[in-house]
TrEMBL record:
EC identifiers of the protein: 1.1.1.100
InterPro entries named in the record: KR_dom (IPR057326), NAD(P)-bd_dom_sf (IPR036291), Sc_DH/Rdtase_CS (IPR020904), SDR (IPR050259), SDR_fam (IPR002347)
Family: Belongs to the short-chain dehydrogenases/reductases (SDR) family.
Broad class of enzyme this protein falls into: oxidoreductase
Superkingdom: Bacteria
GO molecular function: 3-oxoacyl-[acyl-carrier-protein] reductase (NADPH) activity
Domain Ketoreductase: 2-165
UniProt-recorded name of the protein: 3-oxoacyl-ACP reductase FabG
This protein's UniProt keywords: Oxidoreductase
Record field: transmembrane: none
Length: 223
């Protein structure tokens, strides 16, 4: 999904820097830098590299990094919980904190957090993941209230089940059960999420702030 988001920005003519732990394997047309979102120094170095590449502050940040360690609550270890929250929630915080320095200087910017329908609905065996993804909503809305006057917006995209290699590898019965629970009766394509992210970064979305936009085929409606 992260690759699809980057490709959507590249296709729109934007100058794109993507991050990965290795600093390699980015999409064509994008510059890839190494970054571990659980490490503040690594995040700072990645932003510095991006700023040098752009010749100025980063205008749009998409916080998409995420991991899972699913297991039942009674079996979930402290490390299972802490590692997921550190990557999914604290990692987004580190990126947003670093990005806002440049955004304040340039008097504007966009911060977009990629959450999940699970953050709104919850999921058995996903106490850690759901907590981390729900936390992004409070983070975005706090940033929106704090920095809205400086023309910086913070919004959340909450995807549902996406048709990826991971979901295609699921047992057919499990995959069918997921699809049957979705009013749209299908999974989303990664580009359907990417285009919503791209919209939130565009000029026409300048008055959208602190919003949670579901891209889930109706699975989480009402939340």
């Amino acid at each position: 999904m992260g690759r699809a988001i980057a490709e959507a920005f590249v296709a729109a003519g934007d100058d794109v820097v993507v991050t990965s732990r290795s600093g390699t394997d980015g999409p064509d047309g994008a510059t890839t830098v190494a970054c571990d979102v659980t490490d503040t120094a690594s995040v700072d170095a990645a932003f510095t590299a991006a700023e040098e590449h752009f010749g100025g502050p980063v205008e749009v940040v998409v916080a998409n990094a995420g991991i899972t360690h699913d297991t039942l609550l009674m079996r979930m270890t402290d490390d299972d919980f802490d590692s997921v929250v550190d990557t999914n929630l604290a990692g987004a915080f580190r990126c947003a904190r670093r990005a806002t320095k440049g955004m304040i200087r340039r008097k504007g910017g966009r911060i977009i957090f990629v959450s999940s329908v699970v953050g709104l609905l919850g999921g058995p065996g996903q106490v850690n993941y759901a907590a981390s993804k729900a936390g992004l909503v409070g983070m975005a809305r706090s940033i929106a209230r704090e920095l809205g006057k400086k023309a910086i917006t913070a919004n959340v995209v909450a995807p549902g089940f996406i048709d990826t290699d991971m979901t295609r590898a699921l047992p057919e019965a499990q995959r069918k059960a997921y699809v049957d629970s979705i009013p749209a009766a299908r999974m989303a394509e990664p580009d359907e999420v990417a285009q919503v992210v791209r919209f939130l970064a565009s000029d026409v979305a300048g008055y959208i702030n602190g919003a949670v936009i579901p891209v889930d085929g109706g699975l989480g409606m009402g939340h």
